Amino acid sequence: MIDVVATFIFFFAVIDPIGTIPVFIAVTRHLDERARRKVALRASLASAAILVFFVVAGELILTAIRIPLSAFQIAGGIVLFLFALSMIFGEAKPEKEVKLANGGRDTAIFPLAVPSIASPGAMLAAVLLTENDRYNLWQQAQTTITMLAVLVVVLVCMLLASRLHRVVGESGASIISRVMGMILASVATASVLGGIKDYFGI
């Protein structure tokens, strides 16, 4: 059995459902309620397909090009750490992705599905948390189900976006995004240390 709560929190941090709300509102600001529901569903399905692909094929691709998973874990941890720093000190996720949405490319795929929901951090997490040498098939299935549960939360947040945005607001979404950035920074550090330990057999 995996630690479902820890895995859920990890995916919640990298996917950031609350931070997706302002992006969704910006993307669908000219649409009626029915069209908004379609965009939310399409974005959720596209994100799920992308992340499940990384669960299934991510490690196979690394093996095919002869990159040890420990090296990917170190590199992924560094990238995730930089991503976390950008959330903490730079523009928060809602701020920078709303700008993308306002840039004219207002589709369910970009910037909503990628990079808002299926973020680089989420793709890395999908690979690292389903490593074949560490997790059996049942544990990988549990991780995938947990990841999909977070995507269901994302879908619910998008469907209730207008109401939630009135409660949370732009500032609230920004604060939550920065708190998630702190969690990600800690996870990224642990990933780098674990990768170094595995690579050198310490």
From TrEMBL:
Subcellular locations according to the entry: Cell membrane
Transmembrane segments: 6-27, 39-65, 71-89, 109-129, 141-161, 173-196
Alphabetized UniProt keyword annotations: Cell membrane, Membrane, Transmembrane, Transmembrane helix
Pfam families: MarC
Primary location group: membrane
UniProt keyword annotation of rRNA processing present: no
Bilayer topology term: Multi-pass membrane protein
Keyword Membrane in annotation: yes
Record GO cellular component, one term: plasma membrane
Family indicated by similarity: Belongs to the UPF0056 (MarC) family.
Protein name: UPF0056 membrane protein
The species this protein was found in: Marilutibacter spongiae
